[in-house]
Design brief:
This protein is mostly helical. The chain has a two-stranded antiparallel sheet with strand order 1-2. The protein contains nine helices and two strands.
């Protein structure tokens, strides 16, 4: 609830929206240049974002990914869940990678990267994509620290907002590496299941309000207490 965190989150979201708009325009332009007819969806924008992040390369095979191979009528590369979705319920961008379709279906399957025979080779490629991005975030975080010296409050707040924004970006990159380097699947990777529950609760509440005069959603802890009281 800190005001500087709220500002940082707002700037972070606004920047992502601007990037998505830019990526949409790029996809449309490159599709036109390559004679590809498509409607740009959020899913295609996610693919483009990962394509840029991964230096237009598949980390698992080392194959270069060209625009046609990713967005053409017969895509040779597609989304792959780093921690298999059947094990993690995690459909977030942090858990998605662009991967050679054949490798994903016939080699990786339901394995985590650490279980693959060429894991070390794959990990080197994957980590290379994010090393510079992580260093950039750490540098911005360090530059925006006040180190205890007096600074005008408004300038100090601006520096703190910049630091928080860099921390949000860093959290994303660290999250990707954490999933990729994981040696097993922990409960922490199942957080998105809670997001599904929140979405279900939201729609259930809206529906129930059409039937009952008063509806109030409550969290799991209170629900558990009621269950014990009511037996």
């Amino acid at each position: 609830n800190d005001k500087n965190w709220r500002k940082a989150i707002a700037y972070f979201q606004k920047e992502n929206e601007a990037k998505n708009k830019e990526y949409k325009e790029r996809i449309e332009e490159e599709a036109k240049n390559n004679g590809i007819s498509l409607i740009v969806t959020d899913e295609l924008i996610k693919k483009y974002r990962l394509w840029i992040e991964q230096d237009k390369q598949c980390p698992y095979t080392g194959k270069k990914i060209n625009f046609t191979a990713l967005f053409g009528d017969n895509p040779q590369f597609d989304f792959e869940h780093t921690i298999p979705r059947s094990l993690s319920y995690d459909d977030s961008l942090e858990n998605l990678t662009l991967c050679d379709v054949n490798f994903n279906r016939n080699v990786k399957k339901q394995q985590i990267p650490h279980q693959l025979a060429n894991y070390k080779e794959i990990a080197q490629r994957f980590e290379r994509y994010y090393e510079e991005k992580i260093d950039n975030c750490l540098e911005r975080i360090e530059k925006s620290r006040t180190h205890g010296r007096y600074i005008d409050p408004s300038i100090k707040d601006t520096m703190i907002v910049k630091r928080h924004k860099a921390e949000l970006e860093l959290r994303y990159y660290i999250g990707k590496l954490k999933r990729f380097n994981s040696e097993d699947v922990t409960k922490g990777f199942k957080h998105s299941q809670l997001n599904d529950t929140r979405i279900i609760t939201k729609f259930a509440k809206d529906y129930l309000k059409t039937v009952f005069d008063y509806v109030m959603p409550i969290n799991g802890t209170i629900t558990d207490t009621f269950k014990h009281q009511w037996g």
